[in-house]
Amino acid sequence: MIVENLLQQLSQIGFWTQLLIFTLENGILLLMAILIGKVIEPQNTVLSIKDRKWVISSLICNTLITALGFKMYQLQIIRIDFSPSLTSAVIDTLVLIILMDFFMFCFHYLAHTLKWFYPIHKLHHTHIKTNVYSLFVLHPAETLGFGFIWLILISIFPFNYISLIVYLFLNLMYGIFGHLEKDLFPAFWHKSLITKWISTTKFHADHHKNEAHNFGFYFTIWDKIFKTSI
Ligand SMILES: [Zn+2]
Ligand SMILES: [Zn+2]
């Protein structure tokens, strides 16, 4: 009930204060990502001057998506299951991860195949050698696109609140690990029957080196099914 009460209290404050809180929240997540990059690979975690504006625009877009999501929650377009059920939290987290990965795979595949979309996505591919900042070097249209996929999906089903928090945390972590230069995944990962279906740093790094392959984010399965895997 703590989360439900927090959202209730947030509803009672003015829009601009809400926006300030959402900016701080997204700013803290951005700083956390940079900190992880600085700890794991300090020499590679350098923000170039030309990328500064994209990192800031991604922060603004993520804040706008948070504000829009909160408005949709207030209007009951997004409904949240606040029951403290561990079973529904686990099932909903798995459903969110699988569905989001599939929709993002499709979105990413279209970004590479549609003539009007590729010039937008091309910005992310200015980073052939990636670092943690690459995650935020995205055109605003693309950041908003990913955000809309998220908001549409959580409008369709009332997901458990724990699953929403866990998914957002895992999504950020995977975004960070996918763009580090250093591969944190052990060598057996790519061969083991269970783990080989889960994406690694190398999997997304290979996409930055060869754009015709590896469109998935959390799993390698979609690329295997659609024969786009390296
Ligand atoms: Zn990338
Ligand atoms: Zn791409």
Portion of residues in beta strands equals under 5%
The overall strand count is 0
- Helix amount, in percent? 55-70%
Radius of gyration: 18 Å
Number of domains: 1
Shape: globular
Number of distinct helices: 9
**Separation, N- and C-terminal Cα atoms:** 46 Å
Mean pLDDT: 95
Q: Spans of 5+ residues with little confidence (pLDDT < 50)?
A: none
* Molecules bound to protein: zinc ion
> Major beta sheet, specifics?
none
User: By helix and strand content, what is the structural category?
Assistant: mainly alpha
SSE string, helices as H and strands as E: HHHHHHHHH
Short description:
With 230 residues, this protein is mostly helical.
Walk me through the structure.
α4 (86-113) packs antiparallel against α6 (140-156) and α4 (86-113) crosses α7 (161-179). It contains 9 helices and no strands. The mean pLDDT is 95. The chain has one domain. By secondary structure, the protein is mainly α. The protein has helices spanning 2-11, 15-40, 49-74, 86-113, 118-121, 140-156, 161-179, 201-209, 221-225. Helix content is 63%, strand content 0%. Residues 108, 111-112, 121, 125, 207, 211 line the site of one zinc ion.
Which SSEs are present, and which pair or pack?
Blueprint: H1 2-11, H2 15-40, H3 49-74, H4 86-113, H5 118-121, H6 140-156, H7 161-179, H8 201-209, H9 221-225
Helix pairs in contact: 2-3, 3-6, 4-6, 4-7
Bound molecules: zinc ion (ZN) (2 copies).
One zinc ion (ZN) is lined by residues 108, 111-112, 121, 125, 207, 211.
